[in-house]
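Indolepyruvate oxidoreductase subunit beta
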Amino acid sequence: MKAVKNILLVGVGGQGTILVSKILTSGLVKAGYDVKMSEVHGMAQRGGSVTTQVRYGEKVYSPIIGRGMADILVAFEKMEAARWIEYLKPDGIVVVNNYEIPSLPIAIGKAEYPQGIMEALAKNFKTIEIDAAKTAMELGNIKTQNIVLLGALIKAFELNEIDWIEILKEIIPEKMLEINIKAFEKGMGL
């Protein structure tokens, strides 16, 4: 692979965005790619935006993805997809968790959650809508929605040549491994 590929992961603090980027980075490094990762926590502990940029290829010089450069945008929350969509290439793919986490102004009634996000995304980009929260709840743990999204990302971006189950075994604590493997496989199927 000569061309550098750019993956932008966006979400809200506590959704596991950074864990997914670490799993992704580990798998790509093991597959022999040069990988650079950058993460921004912001006000993550207070429900703020979290972004992670993963770039990989034969040789990567910078971890930063510029506007209009992401090959794929994975949004763990719908409003975050809208907030970061300008970073996606015109022919890029957006994988969106159809999940809403109200920001503080929305939570206290000072603003409304924006409507029509999914429709606007689908009108302008190849959009894959995932209900990762529902899938995670069916598995018995809402916290696995990040791994559901990882599975969907792997499938959408055709990164199937890597043994992701082995990578999960190396990173996920043993007591949470079985449910996370199931979440990953469900995500691949979505």
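thats it. DSSP finds eight helices and six strands in the chain. The chain has one domain: 5-189. bye
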